[in-house]
Amino acid sequence: MPTKTTSTWALIAIVSLLGTGCGPSPRELSDAQWLDLQTDMQQERAEVGRQRDQLEADRRQWDQRERTEPILAAAVVSAAMLIACGLPLIVVGILFWPRKEPPASDAMCEVLIDEVVLHVSEPKRIVPSSDPPKLASGK
Question: Which parts form a coiled-coil structure per UniProt (predicted)?
């Protein structure tokens, strides 16, 4: 059961709230205060509009990136695969490409063959030396 002092304080709080209210009523505001409130609300609305526009611009930018970046990545991967697969074919092509012999090699071969034939046809002679060979002595 509530005590007398608690009920008294509750009654005082209710009467004071009823007397003063929660703040000024719209009827008690002056025209200048109304203009200030409207100006503040317009500024807040403008700021919210700017932020919404910035958010929409960011969304469009991210949407554009999501569309273009995968295409670019796929193009880079395809180009790398094409190079990686084509490089061995290029190397094999270079190795099997017909090369022209230098024109001097035919003449050089003929000269070498002539020299070999001339040396083979000449008999090998042992040139006598003026010093007789010495045998090792057992001393």
Answer: 38-65
